[in-house]
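__Protein archive entry__

___
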Amino acid sequence: MATTAAAAGSITLGGDLPVHRLGFGAMRITGRDIWGDPRDPAEARQVLQRAVALGVNFIDTADSYGPGVSERLIADALHPYPPGLVIATKGGIVRPSAGRWDPDCRPGHLRAACEASLKRLRLERIDLYQLHTVDPNVPLEDSIGELARLQAEGKIRHIGVSNVDAAQLKRARKLVVIVSVQNRYNVADRSSDAMIAACERDGLAFIPWRPLAQGAGEAAAPHAALARLASRRGISLSQAAIAWLLARSPAILPIPGTSRLAHLEENVAAAAIELTAQELRDVGR
């Protein structure tokens, strides 16, 4: 019997949305450079359906993935949604071209983006809507204030933030209840260690993006320790990275993504891998 995401345990978002602590990031089901339709739309839909069949009940996406493609594929593959499935999306970044990721957190844009996401996802309310970034040209209070208005109108259930520092999180939390933080974090990039501690202390979920540390410029030393662990345990480097994140803090909700069924199965199987205290010391906690 295949391991399911339930093996990772659970975390509750906002006090009322329990999800398994291994989600799915739906960025890579789009085309190359996260632009346009995927090479194989049928497989993309199969990946989403198989993720849910394997117990994944938290899917993270954004209007900028495609743009719009990831949200549309999620609805095509999974609507009507099964009970308990939480779909989180984000707004605040626009894509004028494949290589561009430009912040736009003006209140008017965020309102239009949220309403467009509702239509693409075929939802009346988004369970978790996240400010995708902080726009240097727009006061954070204006951006968060618009999300608070959308929440009051019943279009958003819970609000999260992404790509923020501690001071920005504090400012946001003065205006509205924030239930999650999504920052880059992995075994090679631990710049959000203090943020994770704050999330753990205050009951927020920490959702690491690029959880598998596969981008250019990642530090080599943590990779080497992780590779040794993977070799000793007979698991893949991706599985070791996911297991490390799950062990790192109960506040962490990893969202590894893929466009391939075999890779999805491999990632979900990591939910059952428990690292020893010595293994955690070897990689670094």
In short: Residues 107-121 form the longest helix (15 residues).
